[in-house]
Write a structure and sequence with these properties.
By secondary structure, the protein is α/β, with parallel strands linked by helices. It contains 8 helices and 6 strands, in the order E-H-H-E-H-H-H-E-H-E-H-E-E-H. It has a single domain, classed as 5'-nuclease (Rossmann fold, 3-Layer(aba) Sandwich). Helices cover 50% and strands 14% of the residues. The model is unreliable at 146-155 (pLDDT under 50). It is globular and about 40 Å long. Helix 1 crosses helix 3. The chain has helices at residues 7-15, 20-30, 40-50, 53-59, 63-76, 96-104, 115-118, 131-142, and strands spanning 2-5, 35-39, 77-80, 109-111, 122-123, 126-129. A 6-stranded mixed sheet has the order 3-2-1-4-6-5.
Length: 155
């Protein structure tokens, strides 16, 4: 199973370490059958969001912590060189990088907290789902996993 996570899911995994996005990252790190397809562009956006003063102050992360988080994500991800240039998200063209990463990374799923991405439902064969739905898909695929009860903000 190949999956691309939107930046908002990556950030949410570190905002609430007990939420659905964190559970998803844990499962990706645990099961070699799940490949996380990301691009440098998604990771640059992740670092940018995590480096915002309000986020740093709220979460207590410093630049060194953010660098360690980025490296941890890189260690569990396959970094895709994005060549596609589809214009799929009219409401937020910056999110096209997520779709293009998924296409070039041959992901079956795009996991996002953005409703305008969900509205597509699928694009070029990639299903676009929210974190809760993806967690359900993974649970069905890999049997009865022990997953914490979590109420994610990205439902």
């Amino acid at each position: 199973m190949r999956v691309t996570l939107d930046t908002n899911v990556l950030v949410s995994a570190f905002i609430s370490k007990h939420g659905t996005p964190a559970d998803i990252l844990d499962l990706i790190a645990t099961f070699e059958e799940i490949t996380l397809a990301l691009s440098d562009e998604i990771l640059v956006e992740f670092v940018d969001v995590m480096s915002r003063k309000e986020v740093q102050m709220s979460l207590g992360y410093n630049k060194s912590d953010i660098s360690k988080l980025e490296n941890a994500i890189r260690n569990i991800a396959e970094i895709i060189v994005v060549k596609s240039d589809y214009k799929a998200i009219k409401e937020d063209p910056e999110d096209d990088i997520v779709v293009n990463t998924a296409i070039d990374g041959k992901a079956q799923y795009i996991v996002s907290g953005d409703r305008h991405l969900w509205r597509l439902g699928e694009f070029m064969g990639e299903q676009i789902v929210n974190p809760k739905i993806f967690l359900s898909i993974v649970t069905k695929s890999f049997g009865d996993l022990i997953i914490s009860d979590s109420n994610s903000e990205l439902e």
